[in-house]
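Private note to self, pasted from the team thread so I don't lose it. Backbone tokens:
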């Protein structure tokens, strides 16, 4: 019997880092579901990805702030493809302001999406990943170890993701699940309303993070890089 094709679920996968990861995984023969709070964005991203390999992409409307929504996303992947092998918790948002100006709503949204959303993703997928001896990968940030002005909400969320990921890794490794957190620096994406251009050529590109994810899942079962910091080789002056 032929080996079953591996499957992945990527939150916030309709653009940016998530989409870059999806492109790489599909090009290597892995079926990928991408989620977005917008059904249209998720389906349009899947349509573009299916041009790489027809039938290998699925768009799912999902909100990481809802545990039930994450459960439904996982269930949809399993109903569609029979299993879940890799979960990439990528969805994120950034509000940057001094504490005097940061609003409670901005704080709440940052923590709910960037941190609680990762918990909901993990909680919703851990049983499925136990069955496949799968991989749970979080996309944190160098802001998870380096604090900066106007970063109270973002730093808090990303420091939390790093701590959560490392503790989860210890919880589930005996169940055969790997956990890694990837911590990129400057990436050329639409994050925080940025419009990528040729001026961003010095930055990490989304597909570069995809390559890291691809390399991680190819490592022998005995080896686990649990935390990976990623920086541009030559930062802009």
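Design output:
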């Amino acid at each position: 019997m032929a080996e079953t094709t591996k499957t992945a679920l990527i939150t916030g996968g309709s653009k940016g880092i998530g989409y870059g990861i999806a492109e790489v995984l599909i090009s290597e023969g892995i079926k990928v579901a991408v989620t977005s709070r917008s059904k249209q964005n998720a389906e349009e991203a899947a349509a573009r990805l299916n041009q790489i390999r027809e039938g290998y992409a699925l768009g799912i409307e999902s909100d990481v702030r809802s545990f039930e929504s994450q459960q439904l996303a996982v269930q949809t992947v399993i109903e569609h493809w029979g299993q879940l092998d890799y979960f990439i918790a990528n969805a994120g948002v950034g509000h940057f302001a001094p504490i005097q100006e940061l609003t409670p709503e901005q704080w709440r949204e940052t923590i709910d999406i960037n941190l609680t959303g990762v918990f909901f993703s993990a909680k919703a997928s851990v049983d499925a990943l136990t069955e496949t001896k799968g991989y749970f990968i979080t996309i944190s940030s160098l802001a998870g170890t380096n604090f900066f002005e106007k970063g109270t909400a973002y730093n808090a969320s990303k420091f939390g993701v790093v701590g959560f990921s490392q503790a989860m890794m210890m919880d589930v490794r005996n169940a055969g699940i790997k956990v890694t957190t990837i911590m990129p620096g400057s990436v050329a994406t639409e994050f925080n309303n940025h419009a990528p251009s040729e001026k961003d050529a010095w930055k990490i590109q989304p597909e570069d993070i995809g390559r890291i994810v691809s390399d991680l899942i190819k490592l022998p079962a005995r080896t686990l890089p649990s935390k990976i910091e990623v920086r541009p080789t030559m930062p802009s002056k």
